[in-house]
Amino acid sequence: MHYDYTEILMKILAGLGLFFFGIKMVTGNLSAIAGDHFRRGLQKASERTGAAILFGATAGFVTQSGRTTSFILASFIQVGLIGVERALPIVLWANFGCTLVIFTAVFPIYLFALFLLAVAGVCVAFERPKPLLGSASATFGLALMLFGMQMMSSSAPILTNLHWFATALAFIKTSLVFAFAMGLVLTFVAQSHIAIVLIAITLATRGIFDLEQTVMVIFGAYAGSSLITYVTGIHFRGQPRQVVTAQFLYSPIGLSLFLPLFVVAHLLAGHGEVLAFLPKGLSVSPGTAAALVALAFNTATPLLLTIALPAFRRLCARLTPPLEEEDLGKPQFLREEVGGNAVATLLLAEQEQLRLLQRMPAYMAWSRGEAAARTGPTPEAYHQAFAQVGRSIERFQSALTSQRMTAEDTEWLLNQQKRQELLGALDEACHELHQVSQEVGAAAEQLRSSVVEALDTMLLTAISGMANGDDEELAMLDTMTRDRGPTMERMRGRYLAAFDAISPQERSRILQITSLFERTAWSLHRFGALLRQSPGMAAQAERTRHRIDSPGVDVEAPAPSSASARAAS
Length: 569
What we know:
Layout: H1 5-45, H2 49-63, H3 66-78, H4 84-99, H5 110-126, H6 133-159, H7 163-174, H8 176-190, H9 193-205, H10 211-232, H11 239-269, H12 286-307, H13 309-319, H14 342-359, H15 361-368, H16 379-400, H17 407-437, H18 445-468, H19 471-481, H20 485-498, H21 504-533, H22 536-549, H23 562-568
Helix pairs in contact: 1-2, 1-6, 2-4, 3-4, 3-11, 4-11, 4-12, 5-6, 6-9, 7-8, 8-9, 8-10, 9-10, 9-12, 10-11, 10-12, 11-12, 11-13, 14-16, 14-17, 14-23, 15-17, 15-18, 16-17, 17-21, 18-19, 18-21, 19-21, 20-21
């Protein structure tokens, strides 16, 4: 029979393209659908090992990547949403969830794939029904993936008639090490070990690969997945990196169990006879057997690591120890347990905002070049930590908008959200002032010193006013920060006129410093004004009076007030 090998090769390439595009559609659409559910269910699921295992398997099936799941959880650890010990079971069992899709390569579901293409394609094209559009897009992606596999598997056997293809297959059959290396390299190129595993099993189902070749390609794909995790997760540090390290170690630990068993079976049975170990009455194809090996790999490995979880946790902590400044980026007061109580959340968010405000004088100390400021966390660490805590505060505030609240509490929330925006602007300006201060020359040194001292005084006044709920101090802040534009304009003019030979770079520094002063003063002015209008100020003032009247009371304990009484109820 005559074949058009060019057409066959194009069909295989087209099937490969549809397959990868289908995987991307499934992952992207399912992740978008499950994003909110993932965040809401994470805290509850992580409290019990059984629920964490089920949640991890579901997350792995949705994301089709244990690596992606580990990165998501590392980000949640970074903002204090979950601890490492609770995240590890979810990450481990996400790998089991990924494996479930492998069986689509074994069962004959070609007609079912065509049906899905028709139904889901119509839904996506006409964008109906709207609520199910995300699910329809994910289903269409799954159908494309199955159709692409069918195109590849139906055309690939014909290529065995080609001399070069038959020679390559013969070489792979004589070198299992090459099959392992091929799986590793292809996974690194495709950035998806599941894709390579699916392709290998599909080829085995069609009789192109035998069981031993397929299993070695699968093992190589798992090794490649670990390398990708290490390379792409390099930006995580400290405790968040511990779950990434756990995912990196997952495949080597599994391979250390399964690879020796496979080698022993290969040596005992001889080349191509591993299936002889199966019971006589059980007859399975190489593709089905390879899929079962992958399932066993991703069942035994997470099971073993879950049983040995304390030791595995210590190993990950030893390889990636926590950073000294890591607690800076975690909320100290806000907890998921209080998220359902609007007043309690608002009270604790006030304390988080005060904590952020209290850090800002440190930028002034760094700008002055004080020796004490050179020890401990860097300005960049403070700046990054501010962003992490700020995101946590905004997440809690955003969650409150869907709750039923009194008019007073709603006004309090809106006031607090505006102050959070101003805190972000303050942190940005203070951090930028520190950076500019490192490059200031002699001409602008006195200006820098005056600006830093003035801002330090304003910040300390704002901190004292917010911490004590003192209206007099906030009134003083209002006076200190009111319309500093004309003053800075005159100061700029004097400095620029005093130095005729000033360099363009120094002139730029002077303009930057005065501009940053104006921005910071304006932000503090608005922040103080919002504090005086905030319904939470009365509760803060009562807290301060309670602390003074009762010295033995914990500083962070909420004092009796209308707001805290409602929080307790």
